[in-house]
Amino acid sequence: MDNSYSLVILALIFCPILVRAQSFDFAYNGFNNSNIIRDGIAIINPNGALKLTNRSQNVIGHAFHPNPVPIFNSSTKNVTSFSTYFVFAIVSLEKTSGGFGFAFTLSPSPGFPGAKGAHFLGVVNSSNDGNDTNHIFMVEFDTVDGHDEGVDTGGNQIGINRNGMRHITSESADYYNNATSETKPVDLQNRESIQAWIDYDGMSKVVNVTISPIKVPKPIIPLISRDVDLSPVLKETTYAGFSAATGDKASSHYILGWSFRLNGAADPLDLEKLPVAPPEVVTSSKNSHLKRALIGTFCSVVILLLGAFYIYRRMRQHEVLEDWELDCPHRFRFRDLYKATKGFKESELIGVGGFGAVYKGVLPTNGAEVAVKKISSNSLQGIREFAAEIESLGRLRHKHLINLQGWCKNKNDLLLVYDFVPNGSLDSLLYRQKRDIVLTWEQRFNIIKGIAAGLLYLHEEWEQVVIHRDVKSSNVLIDGEMNGRLGDFGLARLYDHGKNSHTTNVVGTIGYIAPELTRTGKASTSTDVYAYGVLLLEVASGRPPIVYEPGKGALVLADWVIECLQLGNILDAVDQRLNSVYVDKEVQMILRLGLVCSHPRPEARPTMRQVMKYLNGDESLPVFEQQLSCIGSGRVDEITAKFLEVFSTDTINISHRSLSVGQTSSSSLHSGR
Ligand SMILES: *[C@@H]1O[C@H](CO)[C@@H](O)[C@H](O)[C@H]1NC(C)=O
Ligand SMILES: *[C@@H]1O[C@H](CO)[C@@H](O)[C@H](O)[C@H]1NC(C)=O
Ligand SMILES: *[C@@H]1O[C@H](CO)[C@@H](O)[C@H](O)[C@H]1NC(C)=O
Ligand SMILES: *[C@@H]1O[C@H](CO)[C@@H](O)[C@H](O)[C@H]1NC(C)=O
Ligand SMILES: *[C@@H]1O[C@H](CO)[C@@H](O)[C@H](O)[C@H]1NC(C)=O
Ligand SMILES: *[C@@H]1O[C@H](CO)[C@@H](O)[C@H](O)[C@H]1NC(C)=O
Ligand SMILES: *[C@@H]1O[C@H](CO)[C@@H](O)[C@H](O)[C@H]1NC(C)=O
Ligand SMILES: *[C@@H]1O[C@H](CO)[C@@H](O)[C@H](O)[C@H]1NC(C)=O
Fold first, then answer.
1. Would you indicate the residue range of the signal peptide (predicted)?
2. Is there a single domain that holds both residue 446 and residue 492?
């Protein structure tokens, strides 16, 4: 065979190798089983997310692609065109506490030994910051105001840096919306996945940086387009990676997917399959250890159910915080909820409460019926902080509670997905609708017991004391088996979060607010018992707690029941629609119990545990006549009276209207007991 033939063979053999040498590329769709180099506190979450830092203060995390990037073109000796694309998420509980940011880096080694955190982002320190011998190029995603030397101003910025923290240029984070020709801001640290592209053209020596929310395709106009010659900056051996750091303020920084290509556009990522940043718990307060333990416990329970008790023990021992990220409660896609409720169509509306509208929905994913509560808040802060608590609310599970299945945040709307309960609310069955259906005494007694069990669970049987703060008949929903289920627990917190921490709200509904609550603003299990007492009176009498009659003033149900009692005929207070078909002893007991529970003096009220004993007949209710007679009238406290004046024309809505008065208040979720 002649030489030319073997040359052809050689060419055929080496050609693909040469081509491959020129096209260096990689794509991580999540980081499961990846051989990415990590240091500092960077970890790979079980869901495949690369977590560079958690919310500990003053920590650093790095991650690098293991192989150096052949970034110099061997023939031109210039830096080759490259393109990188990644999806990230930054989770901080509130804007003011977030920090510090992360950077995409090109550097001579896969690490930054001696680097400092906080505003040095784990890349340099004060002695080598800006030194040309660093050979570092970085694109910085800042979340903290007031960078060093006044270079940065606003936070939520993206900047391009060489060899240190000084920006060549920076822009506040936004993206160009081609459809509307508008520029829209992107909140870098709101936990949502955000896409970023960094493109370098080796010929024109221009760096483009583009970002967009996860659902928006790459904008046609980059956020930053800037002349930067990388050839003098970078070294022959260069690694690509990320660095993130926290300071006295801290956020979790996640990279969810990452691709890179020389001489061409970086590969797209499979956005559907990428992991998401899990919701995180509040760890700032002193009870963070407790909370962590609580979380551990819940996740363990899940696993317990799967029959793996030993794992439970191990998890507790190691306090594996990352593991509760088992998506509890489930975070729904907005798209699915939108579809489920036919676009939040008027016809799907099943109720409007103090916190927002409730829509019936059928999940497209599994056809399950759900109730979707849409809470619009002007206070993004409020929503964000509340979102941190959803995690704990979502873990409350009881037969007599409306379980929170999951949630979703969309712009200023918080969507809460609950079990769908078909038979409507108790107030509508008792007196709101002129339906033929009259709840029998048996059904009523059963509902009362159920709600007591639900409240007892919130007060005493869960890991934390949860104060409902808005117990009322319209919050009691009746399921297919005519059981009562209590809804809206914990939502009262939403009001708190919108305000500053020194003044919070008294939240409740007229007719159900314990007198001491309006004075001190301090909600307690005892104020819940008060409201439960009013509910008992409602159920037995079939009347709303307060009716305003022109000329007569406010008719307070409890006053009237006391009157009947004092006249020696408490059964006059019983709902006439029952047609005298009821168990005499039970009805009397419920009316008396209602009065005792809604006693103006908190110390006179029983606990829910005692209430359960009375309801189950384990203990008989002591005779309270003496005590009750001294309650007298004047139960309508000043504030209630004032509101009644204002709303006097609207009888029906009085008991529905949420009252909110600025006063100091304790939180509804008390740690420990
Ligand atoms: C080097 O640059 C030349 C001219 O721009 C280009 O044709 C070639 O593909 C580049 N090689 C590599 C390995 O990037
Ligand atoms: C990564 O692993 C987790 C848990 O094993 C799994 O749920 C997830 O789907 C995986 N992600 C990818 C992209 O394979
Ligand atoms: C962050 O990670 C470090 C190291 O894994 C751990 O010691 C620390 O407790 C974590 N902090 C938080 C707030 O999770
Ligand atoms: C490489 O860079 C030098 C200086 O930066 C420039 O003069 C030259 O034209 C570049 N070569 C190519 C092929 O871009
Ligand atoms: C700063 O970083 C350099 C380079 O890694 C290192 O040699 C030096 O010791 C560090 N200086 C301080 C004060 O940490
Ligand atoms: C830059 O770093 C080199 C080597 O670490 C050092 O010799 C030099 O003095 C530094 N330059 C400045 C301006 O700090
Ligand atoms: C951007 O918008 C213009 C006009 O609305 C349209 O013609 C073009 O196709 C759009 N480009 C992309 C990438 O969506
Ligand atoms: C950078 O952006 C400019 C302006 O939109 C564009 O003309 C150029 O092609 C972009 N370069 C790269 C490498 O994407």
1. 1-21
2. yes
